[in-house]
Amino acid sequence: MVYTADWIVVQDDARTVVEHGALAVADGRVADVGPAAAVLARHPGEPVSALGEAAILPGLVDAHTHVPMSAMRGLAEDKELFAWLHEDVFPREARWEPRLLRAAAELSFAEMVRTGCTAFYDMYMLQENVFAAADAAGLRGVVGENVVRFFPQLGGATRDALFGRIRDNAAAWRGHPRLRGAVAPHAVYTTDPETLHACRDLADETGWLFGMHMSETRKETADCLAERGLRPIPYCDSLGILRADTALFHCVDVDDADLAILRGRGCTAVQNPASNMKLASGAAPVQRMLDAGVPVAIGTDGPASNNAQNMLRETWLAALLGKLSTGDPTALRAQTALDMATRGGAAAIGDPLAGRLEPGCHADFFALDLRGPGMLPVHDVVSSAVYSATGLENRLTVVAGRELYRDGEWLSIDVERVRASARQLRDWAR
Ligand SMILES: [Zn+2]
Q1: Which stretches does DSSP call E strand in 255-343?
Q2: Average pLDDT, the chain
């Protein structure tokens, strides 16, 4: 298939934007990209999908989310993080049923493919449900199993039981073309050194990635200093658990010494602007991270604390927050924000073939409709995507060459079933 559009944002190293472009797809990969006349001449006889006044962009990567938490969207609002977790979230999470977990994940995936997100990095419990939902939905992603030091818990009666389930999932999903697992200790304040060492060993044993919440609030830093004598990042580094396979979510309260460690270990930082603003946790020092050479991605943190699973909305917010928090309107440019949502996301999920549309890369992309009054006129298509789009302009989402959404139709998800399950999820959460 060859897709043509008025604009193609390639996101290669030169940040090429092709006007009147074409993208050829074969075997789930980008086969060719460039001016439409040239690409069509090189691929005669192939079916053509002419999108016209639209912009094709690499699929967005939601680099930190909790997809089953769609069940708690709008449930407990306007609270402080620790009160929200202990009063509203943890008591409900103790009562999950696998059937509902899968339905909640599917609800999030429906929103993702609607709004141009093609890949995700999830962190939750009983993740065989999210693996199954993501496999069926056709998305690409990292499915992280949450680990805390308290037992019994939903993931298992003992740590051996929990780790046994993780090993079973690793065996069951090994070699999947789009999905990979992660061992995801929840945070420094819900684990201990022994748990963190065990998680690192399990990630190395299974070949899964490693990710955790990190330095989300000043309280987390103060508590870690009091209990461990170190800030969260130096504490984790002293345990030897931070590597190039590691994604650290939030990174709001980080100083220059923390960033030097992240740079040295090759970790990716994932900012979560909406969640951090809503919980008043603060703003991650994103421009300083980038200046320090730390790869940065963007995540929604899931629908319970966002309250959306919409990466265009999040990318817009990341750009604005980057300016507000530095007092510098030249910080966090539109191109930088798009880079974080695409190429930065690829770093977080450990997939160098994601986040760009060069030949050989994954055919993961979406197409923004540029015909609406809110998108006109187009002076700079990257600016249009980052500052004007809301997500609902998206008319096509493709992952590994497969169309998952087109012009109001979900092609891999039964959206009527999702609507029915959302009513069951509301009853469950109540
Ligand atoms: Zn989170």
Answers
A1: 268-271, 296-298
A2: 97
| 247, containing H or E segment | strand 246-250
pLDDT tens column, 306-324 = 999 999 999 999 999 999 9
Structure-block tokens of residue 321: 């927050």
- Cα 197 to middle of ligand 1, angstroms: 21
Query: Does residue 403 contact residue 396 with C-beta atoms inside 8 Å?
Result: yes
Q: How far is the CA of 53 from the centre of ligand 1 (A)?
A: 37
Residues with CB under 5 A from ligand 1 (ion): 301
278, 305 contact by CB (below 8 A):
yes
Alpha-carbon gap, residue 22 to 33, rounded angstroms? 6
Q: How far is the CA of 256 from the centre of ligand 1 (A)?
A: 23
Distance from the CA of 319 to the center of ligand 1, in angstroms?
20
Task: Return d(Cα 247, Cα 252) in angstroms, integer.
Answer: 14
List, as one string, the DSSP characters of 175-232: T-SSEEEEEEE--GGG--HHHHHHHHHHHHHHT-EEEEEES-SHHHHHHHHHHHSS-H
Task: Please tell me the class of the 2-58+354-410 domain.
Answer: mainly beta
The reply to whether the predicted model has a pTM over 0.85 is: yes
Q: β-strand 296-298 against 268-271: which pairing, if any? A: parallel
Q: Does domain 60-348 have CATH number 3.20.20.140?
A: yes
**Separation of 393 CA from ligand 1 center, angstroms?**
27
The answer, yes or no, to whether the previous bond of 295 is cis (omega within 30 of 0) is no
E-strand spans in 27-162? 29-35, 48-50, 54-58, 60-65, 117-124, 140-147
Exposed/middle/buried for 409, CB within 10 Å: 0-12, 13-18, 19+?
A: exposed
> Distance from the CA of 186 to the center of ligand 1, in angstroms?
8
Local confidence band at 81 (pLDDT 50, 70, 90 cut-offs): confident
385 Cα: distance to centroid of ligand 1 (angstroms):
25
Could you tell me the residue ranges of all domains in the chain? 2-58+354-410, 60-348
Q: Which two tokens stand for residue 30?
A: 């980008």
For ligand 1, the distance from its centroid to the CA atom of residue 3, given in whole angstroms, is 36
What is the 210 CA–ligand 1 centroid distance (Å)? 14
* Distance from Cα 183 to the centre of ligand 1, integer Å: 14
